[in-house]
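Many groups now describe folds with learned vocabularies. In that spirit, our science desk offers one protein's residues alongside their backbone shape tokens.
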Amino acid sequence: MLLYKQKKSQGPKGNRLLISVTVLGSAGPIRFVVNEEELVAAVIDTALKSYAREGRLPVLGSNLNDFLLYCPSAGSDALSPWETIGSQGARNFMLCKKPRTEKVKDDGKAAESINRKASGNWKAWFNKSLNLKISSH
């Protein structure tokens, strides 16, 4: 009889979640299991390591401070690296590189603070990409 076998208790660690992390420009999402109390920064680190281990393109690098994690169902703001992944109540996330900032020009005037190509949020980039693909066919 299988009734005598009980699942191990999770204890204070909380529930485990299967999440999907989509990397902009990559073929498909990365899926892995995390603890709902895991910090967003640790989830970004795990996603980058999984992405590299699978040999996916484009090559992203491994510095988790260069990336932002978004929850598409929660709006266009990036998640704080110090909040828990379970606080959003979501299972699908989007990983994006942080926009690069340009250096100050020699004459003392500030250059554009964000590269034009990288400005805006991930939704704007995604919509622009769709429009380019549609118009090129």
About this structure: Residues 100-137 form one domain. The longest strand covers residues 16-23.
